[in-house]
């Protein structure tokens, strides 16, 4: 009997990002702020699914299918992200 295993992709990024092209890819992102050295890890699909309506209503996401935050994880997403020490 074969069992399906869910593979997780890990991606290092220089800013917090939610991209429509990453949806469904089971990607965990590690965001490192170059200025402060702060590191956060988050599940891309989990954050998108919880805040889907919010992202869908943003002009940047409607136009470019991408939401980014350069300096930190947005406050509304911090409960789903883990700060890496």
Q: What's the average pLDDT?
A: 92
Question: Looking at the structure, what is the overall shape?
Answer: globular
Distance between the termini: 40 Å
Low-pLDDT sequence parts? none
State the helix count.
3
As laid out across the biggest beta sheet, the strand order is 1-3-4-6
Helix content: 10-25%
Provide the β-strand percentage band.
Answer: 25-35%
Biggest sheet layout: 4 strands, mixed
* Total number of beta strands: 6
Task: Output the structural class.
Answer: alpha+beta
- Taken in chain order, the helices and strands follow as EEEEHHHEE
Radius of gyration over all CA atoms, rounded: 14 Å
Can you characterise this structure?
The chain has helices at 44-50, 52-57, 59-64; strands at residues 9-13, 16-19, 27-32, 39-43, 66-69, 81-84. The protein is an alpha+beta fold and 85 residues long. The longest helix is centred in the middle third of the chain and has 7 residues, at 44-50. Strand 3 (27-32) and strand 4 form a beta hairpin. 22% of the residues lie in helices and 33% in strands. The strands form two sheets. A four-stranded mixed sheet has the order 1-3-4-6.
Topology overview:
Blueprint (H helix, E strand, L loop, with lengths): L8 E5 L2 E4 L7 E6 L6 E5 H7 L1 H6 L1 H6 L1 E4 L11 E4 L1
Parallel strand pairs: 1-3
Antiparallel strand pairs: 2-5, 3-4, 4-6
